[in-house]
Amino acid sequence: MSIQSITPSLISPNINLPTSGQTLKLGIMASGNGSNFEAVSQAIQNQQINAQIQVLIYNNPGAYVATRAEKCSVPTVLINHRNYKNREDFDTKIVQQLRQWDVEWVIMAGWMRLVTPVLIEAFPNQIINVHPSLLPSFKGLKAVEQALNSGVTITGCTVHLVALEMDSGPILMQAAVPILSGDTSETLHTRIQFEEHRILPQAIALAASLGSNE
Ligand code: GAR
């Protein structure tokens, strides 16, 4: 049984956004597995969005997202936060790399570091984040566990423009996911990620079509 057939009323519809003639130049930032990186890469290959991934920036040596990027010939840059004395210096290095790779839109796809004004001000309204809850509920780490432990019966995921306050900023798209009896954080996170992979590429196209970089 497909996920759609279990929960038809909770799934937001697919929307087909016109992608402008201009190819969006994406820089992806990720810390771990990279399934959202893969979803964006697939959406580009399938011509769902007119974009190119200029570079992957990752902060954890050995993160599987780097293997995924190498497999599809996306340049990778490891910037290990442990080598920087503060968040501002770390973000300064990231901005320098994003500029070097001519990035226009910054996509945080499982980026697990707090950001500073250094990054936000370098790419105003051009940084997009995906978070595994229906924001503003369950910000921060372990959002799936937070939802599971809270007693809510519906959670989901959010794609939003990034503001300075953690997991805040204008919401681009959300998708709801029901919490089923017997769910563990793993089973619930799997269903949430199914939705993340669907709405993240759509939200990138939406942000670009709204012209929020102007
Ligand atoms: C995703 O579920 C994303 O929403 C979450 O990390 C996961 C990364 O998965 N991000 C956050 O919690 C950020 N606050 P992935 O590495 O397989 O894309």
UniProtKB/TrEMBL annotation:
It is an enzyme of class 2 (transferase). Signal peptide: none annotated. SUPFAM superfamilies: Formyltransferase. (6R)-10-formyltetrahydrofolate binds at R87, M112, R113, L114, V115, N129. N(1)-(5-phospho-beta-D-ribosyl)glycinamide binds at G34, S35, N36. Gene3D superfamilies: Formyl transferase, N-terminal domain. GO terms for biological process: 'de novo' IMP biosynthetic process. Residues 26-204 form the Formyl transferase N-terminal domain. The active site is at H131 (proton donor). Catalyzes the transfer of a formyl group from 10-formyltetrahydrofolate to 5-phospho-ribosyl-glycinamide (GAR), producing 5-phospho-ribosyl-N-formylglycinamide (FGAR) and tetrahydrofolate. Belongs to the GART family. This is Phosphoribosylglycinamide formyltransferase. It comes from Mastigocoleus testarum BC008. The gene is purN.
